[in-house]
Structures are given as structure tokens and as C-alpha cells.
Amino acid sequence: MDGVVTDLIAVGLKRGSDELLSSDDIDGPFTMNSSTSTGVYANGNDNKKFKGDRPPCSPSRVLHLRKIPSDVTEAEVISLGLPFGKVTNLLMLKGKSQAFLEMASEEAAVTMVNYYTPVTPHLRSQPVFIQYSNHRELKTDNLPNQAIFSKFGTVLKIITFTKNNQFQALLQYADPVNAHYAKMALDGQNIYNACCTLRIDFSKLTSLNVKYNNDKSRDFTRLDLPTGDGQPSLEPPMAAAFGAPGIISSPYAGAAGFAPAIGFHQATGISVPAVPGALGPLTITSSAVTGRMAIPGTSGVPGNSVLLVTNLNPDLITPHGLFILFGVYGDVHRVKIMFNKKENALVQMADASQAQLAMNHLSGQRLYGKVLRATLSKHQAVQLPREGQEDQGLTKDFSNSPLHRFKKPGSKNFQNIFPPSATLHLSNIPPSVTVDDLKNLFTEAGCSVKAFKFFQKDRKMALIQLGSVEEAIQALIELHNHDLGENHHLRVSFSKSTI
Predict the structure, then answer these.
(1) Is the distance from CB of 176 to CB of 409 less than 8 angstroms?
(2) Based on the number of CB atoms within 10 Å of its own CB, is 386 exposed (0-12), middle (13-18) or buried (19 or more)?
(3) DSSP β-ladder status, 345-349 and 332-337
């Protein structure tokens, strides 16, 4: 695999001992390991009333989420944790408006809590409260396996095959962002306890060509495809599982797609207990067929790609600055700073999924001394000023900007979407530029440089650690696309690494 992110991911299976990501049916036998006697039992009930002002627990990789909306999906809850690391388990208690989210490491959980403590996250426009759980881990036994991939978005096509005695699959999502989320969450996880470890990478292919709809391949946008001459058609139990008219859906609303565990069941010879009612029919929407779908968690106006950004510093903020910052999480088409209230602005992203990404990552961050707030706007588009209308350059159209990071299909930038951090990733550095040159560049921009290092294998890239996240955000705005000479313009993004 080449590491380039597209809407196509390649999946391989091998036996292992990692924990499965999560369950699609929380009525199964769940247990929780805890240092206390309180906990959530197999029937999904708890024997302790959670109070909003209970004493804080010591750090744990299991996080307790309260006040989650009753109609929230698993994917939406998982999306809160993905920017900070792998989510290894999830237990939803919808009747109590609560959930337990298990991160792969305590460090990831601590980072997530520290991030959300000053900035309350929102799901479906409702504030969600996060704290450490008393429980040290979530134990899951005999987990159902439906909709492992489909919870991250619509899967349009799938091809399964055996190569080097290993069962593999190619899945094509409706949107590269969906593939990005699926890879982050599922790579290295198990389909069953201690068995069938998923190995996921991005495929070099940009689209799958599916000729037959059968148990080996399927194109969910083409119901007219034949089963294939001489190829086995679906057996009755398989056909029933695929649902009518031949498309699989997740048991959770809004997370539509294909449940690949059916193919794995036949190919690996593993006995998989059926879960009645877990699968049902689905009608593919036109937005999915055209390749645009909002990621799980998009709330407010359906499909809205416009953000309302408030509490800006009116003396320092510019449309270009917002374009560069929000452009880290998607392609910004238009920016409008309010003429009569310049601390507010509208930012129009390319689609709703990118708007959600930008909102999740940037709301609550400090910019030019003020805490930025971002929510979905009631407006469906940013209007350009009419001819002769006074605007003072506060409205800009960036639709055709060459600085868009995600305009190329399969852009590798989808693989480098991280929360704002004090460490920046620099790239496109010409050979003549030295460590001191770059340190001086950031110092002159008002930053305090704490550490710096070039990549050993590629001196075109480097990491620079600044004094604070706020410094890094401002440096990214001011120095991304800075001309370094020799026809090289500096590329700046947030890094998940530290020096």
C-alpha cells in the first residue's frame, strides 16, 4: 500500500489477541473491570446514580460521557475520541443518556479529557460532559459483528478475495473522510475476541470496478448487475442477510453501508452466531451515490456546510486567516466577516463532513487572545456582496484557491488531520534552508521555539515545537504557504508527534 488516502481501503485479516472495537448490540454480555464495587452489569443497568458533581476519578483509559442525546449514534460518540487515538471499545446506555468510551491508552484518554475540559463538546447541538470512569477497562464477550465498517459511512462497493492464504477485501466508501475515520478506528482491532485482527491501509486504486453482485463482490449503487456466469449466487441465508433489494444497512440510523463480517464468515470458516434483526433493507440516497455524505455527528441543518464562528479578535482576524486555519480540516469556499459585528464570521466549507471536522477541532481554541467558538450556521451558503454594496473586503471567495489541501481525490492530507497542537509539521523545505533559518522565521512571527528537528529520511520535512497551542495556530495562519525561495512554499500543519 502506498499510504495515500482515498475513499478506498484494503482490509486484511489475521488471528490476534487485541480487543474488538465495539458492539452494535449493547444487550450482549458486557462486563467492566473496576477498582471499585460499582459498575455497569450485563443487562446494561448500573447500580449507582451518577451525579454531575461527583468527586473526580483518577485518570483511566475508560471515559464516562453524560448527557448524550437519546438519538445519538455510536459513530458520533466514537468521533469524539478519534482525534486523540484509537477507540478500543464503547458501551452505550441510551436509556440513561450515558456512554462509556475506552481509549487504547491512558495517555490518549488524558489528552482527550484535557482538551474537552475547557471546551465542552457537542453532539447534535447538545453539550456532552466527559470525565474519567472508575472502570479501568471495558470487557466484551461474544460480541456481535454487524456493521463494523458501515458505522463510519456508506460503503458503495466491496470486493473480497484470498491472497497469500489470507482473506482480504477492498471497500470503497462514499467519501474519503469516511475511509479515514474507519482506518483510524479499526486498524489493528479484532472482529472477534482474540481472533481475526484487521489490518487496514489505503488502496492505490481510486475506484472499484464491480462486475457481479454476489457473495464475493457487490456494487450497492448498481442493483442491475448479474450474479456472474459460473459464479456461486447468494445462498438463502446470505441473501436474507443482505436484505431487500440487496443492500445492507446498519442497525443504527444514519450509519448506512455494508457489513463485511458476512464475507469474512464464509471465507475464514469461522462460525458466526447470527443476530436476528441486526440487518435490514436500505435505500441508497442520491448524495451517497454521487460520493458526498456527511460524516457521523453532523447536526443542525442536514448537510449544512456553513459554520458560524464567534468571539474572534476583530482587530487581527482576516478572511484569509480564517481560510488558512479552517483549511486544515477541509476546503474553505467562502469566508464572510460580519460588517457590523466583526467578531463574528461565516465560513463555508466544501461539504458538511468537513464543516463538522473543523467545528470539532477548532471550537474552543484560543486565537489572538480570544477563545474561538464554532457552531453550524442556519445559513446554507455565504452570499457574496452585491455590486456596489459596501464590504471593506470582509467577504472573500476562495472556491478556486490553489491552497486547498483536499481538492485532489485521495489526497494524503486526509491522513494528517489532527487537533491543534504546539508541534507543527513543516514540509516542502528546500535544501538551502537551515535550522536557524526556520527558527528565525518563527521567532520573527512572534513565536517561542522550544524544539526543532528535521526528518532523518526526508530533509524536506521537519517538526517544530512552539511555546503553546495558541502560538502554533497563529504561526500556521501566518506562515503556511510562506515563500522560502527556490520556488518552494512552506506547508504547515498540526502534528500528533512531539519532539
Answers:
(1) yes
(2) exposed
(3) antiparallel
Q: Using one digit for the tens of pLDDT, what is the confidence trace for 286-313?
A: 222 222 333 333 333 346 899 999 999 9
Element (H, E) at 2: none
- How far is Cα 112 from Cα 89, in angstroms, rounded to an integer? 15
CA 497 to chain CA centroid, nearest Å: 18
Distant-in-sequence, close-in-space partners of 425: CB < 8 Å, separation ≥ 6: 416, 461, 462, 463, 492, 493, 494, 495, 497
Burial grade of 378 (CB within 10 A; 0-12, 13-18, 19 or more): exposed
Q: Which of 419, 479, 418, 470 is nearest to 448 (CA)?
A: 470
In the chain, % helix, strand, coil (3-state, to 5) comes to: 20, 25, 55
Q: How far apart are CA 218 and CA 96, in angstroms?
A: 39
Q: Note the pLDDT tens digit of each residue in 183-203.
A: 877 777 765 455 567 888 888
Task: Return the amino acid letter for 212.
Answer: Y
Which pLDDT tens digit goes with each residue over 228-285?
754 443 334 333 333 322 222 222 222 223 333 222 222 222 222 222 222 222 222 2
